[in-house]
Amino acid sequence: MTLNKIKQGFVKGTPLINYKEIGKGPPVIFLHGIGGNSENWYEQQNAIANDFTTIAWDARGYGNSDDYEGALNFEDFSYDLARLMDSKNIDKAHLVGLSMGARILMDFYPKYKNRVATLFLCDCFFDYKILSKDKQKEFIDLRQKPLKNGKTLNEIAPALINSLVGPNCSDEVKRKIKQSFLKIHIESYLKTISESITYNTSNNLSKFNVPTKLVYGEHDKLTPVSIGYLAKEKIKNSSLNIIKNAGHLCNIEQPVSFNKVLLEFLLQHKDKANFRKV
Q1: Which of 86, 119, 152, 231 has its CA 20 to 30 A from that of 93?
Q2: 46 has which bridge partners?
């Protein structure tokens, strides 16, 4: 795979939003998960850069984007995404999100459906309460509770990573995930967790009316494949792919399989996304 040069930019305003851009063609925007950043999508960006302009952001309070005052309202992410699209003169984009990133897109679509060409939603829940009681407790106990009790990111990383990956995940992939996790802004991370546990977009899904691909890791313990099948029932014009031998971060664990599904889907709908004529 040819590695393309990354262009880094910032969306002006409050907070400042960082993004990384690679490629040429119709626009595709990547949104990372709750413990990630834009670097999580580098292999995906390179895999499709010959056909698409790819943009991966750092959500507010993540990576090289600014932190922000006060509590988080989940729709703040949607407004930031619209700002990013405006700054790049994007009319419609293919939108790819994993976990938290996919939940952002579930909120974004009803507000800005005329800006959405397709949706690619990975390893996500559409209602926190759809998780089992045990998974709800685990979500808090592995993330929020230890940090509030004074634990460091380095101390909580091993248990959290093991809860996210598949049984055959390599040490190299675990190392990559840990490097990403250690870059978290703790206060912003805690705000996002607090907002996520009240999140419910169940009523939005039946209103989705763009081509939608659902992707779940075979061994995803946080958002199991069963949630993917429920989402498929709710979202018309959707299809579901299962990534074998992967957990919750299927794009990082199995990038070759993931990229094949991604590129095939995007090429089917390539010209639905476009930049504004200026």
Answers
A1: 231
A2: none
The phi, psi pair for 227, rounded to 5°, reads -70, -35
3-state secondary structure of 250: helix
Any idea what the Cα angle at residue 248 is, between residues 224 and 158, rounded to 5°? 120
Give the integer Cα–Cα distance in Å for 188 and 70: 10
The SS3 call for residue 200 is strand
Which domains, and CATH codes, for the chain? 7-275 (3.40.50.1820)
92-138 tens-digit pLDDT: 999 999 999 999 999 999 999 999 999 999 999 888 888 778 877 88
Tell me the sheet residues that pair with 216.
Answer: 242
Close Cβ partners of 119 (under 8 Å, ≥ 6 residues apart): 95, 97, 105, 109, 208, 210, 211, 212, 213
Q: Residue 6: exposed, middle, or buried by beta-carbon count in 10 A (0-12, 13-18, 19+)? A: middle
CA distance 200 to 127: 4
Question: What residues contact 64, with CB distance under 8 A and at least 6 apart?
Answer: 8, 18, 58
Task: Report the C-alpha gap between 57 and 62 in whole angstroms.
Answer: 9
Q: How many CA atoms lie within 13 A of 53 on its CB side?
A: 16
Token pair, residue 240, equals: 């579901």
Compute φ and ψ for 222, nearest 5 degrees: -80, -55
CA 136 to chain CA mean position, Å: 20
Give residue-wise pLDDT tens across range 151-210: 999 999 999 999 999 999 999 999 999 999 999 999 999 999 988 888 888 888 988 999
